[in-house]
UniProtKB/TrEMBL annotation:
Belongs to the cytochrome P450 family. Its cofactor is heme. It holds the Pfam family p450. GO terms for molecular function: heme binding; iron ion binding; monooxygenase activity; oxidoreductase activity, acting on paired donors, with incorporation or reduction of molecular oxygen. Keywords: Heme, Iron, Metal-binding, Monooxygenase, Oxidoreductase. The keyword Acyltransferase does not apply. Pathway: Secondary metabolite biosynthesis. This is Cytochrome P450.
């Protein structure tokens, strides 16, 4: 991925970097901050931004844009402890400008330099080198995305106004010599990579959920009845209600299964050489009719009679763990 990593500077994100010591350090920081027990510490930020989104959706004219803005608010709050503006927040705009080029640059075969990495050394003035000019512009956006919110958090720490966040916790562990993985550079890079890792999949998932509900009004009715029973129509639900909301939980699972966000690939009959980029066929796994009967039907009820096999296969929606 010469275009993305070498020219655009995205090799700071462990989602794109080669496996090695730095990758392991970044993964360690992510795991220690976001394993299930640790992630509970970020629930207040999630509840605050989720309730803000609920109010926005009541009057929105573009639910997709509002969901995208909400995702940015949530990620910046968790990553940096930054309170964003209700509209036109500069940090969200910086992050969006940094992440957006990935949608083009990460497409396999989009740039010849990814197949012939020697092309990254040709002079910028040569005919056909326009990709290098584009890469420089995109690198500047990525650098600003990585630096600006991190610097804001450093200033908040100095002013003693920093709010709980991944960056604050990481920098405190750096000061405490918590371990070799905890360096300021690693904390800075992992925090910046969170926006890339979480924004698009979160937005896509919620957008698909809304489209599915609009096409299945009986599901909306059942969810509303369950919520009304638990909240008595007097409050918003929160994480403590999750065990009392089995149908809502089933809706979330079915959305993840029904409209797969991951890429697809073919593998049978092909030899996979060392160093090959392999994309797991998430779509095929989550639409296997042996595991999920009538796989193209949006049916949350399938998860109310959950089998162990079905539960295990659903984990493909989140990835495949360590390689």
């Amino acid at each position: 991925m010469a275009m993305l990593n070498d020219l655009m500077g995205w090799n700071f994100a462990f989602a794109f970097m080669d496996y090695g010591d730095t990758w392991r350090q970044h993964r360690k920081l992510m795991h220690q901050a976001f394993h299930p027990a640790a992630a509970e510490g970020y629930r207040p930020q999630q509840l605050r931004t989720a309730r803000s989104l609920a109010h926005r959706l009541l009057t929105t004219s573009d639910f997709h844009a509002d969901i995208r803005y909400w995702a940015g608010q949530t990620i910046l709050s968790i990553s940096y402890g930054i309170d964003t503006q209700p509209r036109n927040d500069p940090y969200i705009e910086i992050a969006e400008k940094g992440v957006y080029p990935i949608l083009e640059a990460a497409v396999p075969g989009a740039y010849l330099v990814d197949s012939f990495s020697i092309l990254k050394y040709i002079p910028d003035w040569m005919p056909g080198a326009s990709f290098k000019k584009k890469a420089k512009e995109w690198k500047a956006c990525a650098d600003e995305m990585r630096a600006r919110p991190f610097e804001a958090t450093l200033q908040n720490i100095k002013d003693k106004s920093a709010k709980p966040s991944f960056t604050l916790d990481g920098l405190e562990k750096v000061a405490q010599n918590f371990g070799s993985a905890y360096t300021e550079e690693n904390v800075k890079s992992v925090a910046a990579g969170m926006y890339q890792a979480g924004s698009d999949t979160t937005v896509a998932g919620l957008s698909v959920l809304i489209l599915a509900l609009l096409d299945h009004p009986h599901v909306i009715k059942k969810v509303q009845e369950e919520l009304d029973l638990v909240t008595e129509q007097t409050r918003f639900p929160d994480f403590g209600d999750e065990g009392c909301l089995p149908y809502l939980t089933a809706v979330v699972k079915e959305t993840m299964r029904w409209w797969t966000l991951g890429p697809t690939d073919e593998y049978k009959g092909y030899r996979i050489p060392a160093g090959t980029l392999v994309l797991g066929n998430v779509w095929a796994i989550l639409h296997d009719e042996k595991i999920f009967p009538d796989p193209f039907v949006y049916n949350p009820d399938r998860f109310l009679d959950e089998t162990k096999t079905m539960k295990n296969y659903l984990t493909a929606a989140w990835g495949f763990g360590r390689r």
